[in-house]
Amino acid sequence: MPPEGEQAHFRALEGLYAHAPINRFFESSLRIEREGVATIRFTLDERHFHAAGAAHGTSYFKMLDDAAFYACNSLVSDRFLLTTAFNLLFTKPLGAGPVVAEGRWVSGRRRVLVGEARLVDGEGEEVARGTGTFMRSRIPLAGLPGYVPA
């Protein structure tokens, strides 16, 4: 039986994530189990490193922003959200291997939503944290490639 209601929205957001061209550069997958929570599993390798041999900050930002964004967009079923600000805290360098980005909605439901995310390395240690604000856009989710509710 195909998913309905919020589960259909969650699966459609997962399809939207998978369809985004930027994700061709990252081995990753999104899962939304419940409203306001998103988990993205990444695998980093040397392609994501800076000159000193660890993950570049752009990789941290991508993982944290995506997790917080999708946690927030899980509460909005008609419009695509846009990141308007994002703050990062790096606590440990990341090397090659698996990383989990855990995002969660914090507050707001009308025009601006606030979300946070953390990165956890393969040993289960938190290596970064971020908080973002996301604004409803005029872009309907239903018109975006990959967003296909069942």
From TrEMBL:
EC number: 3.1.2.-
Alphabetical list of Pfam families matching this protein: 4HBT
Record bears the keyword Hydrolase: yes
Any coiled-coil regions, as ranges: none
Organism lineage string: Bacteria, Pseudomonadati, Pseudomonadota, Alphaproteobacteria, Sphingomonadales
Thioesterase domain sequence ranges: 53-128
Keywords annotated in UniProt: Hydrolase
GO MF assignments: hydrolase activity
Descriptive protein name: PaaI family thioesterase
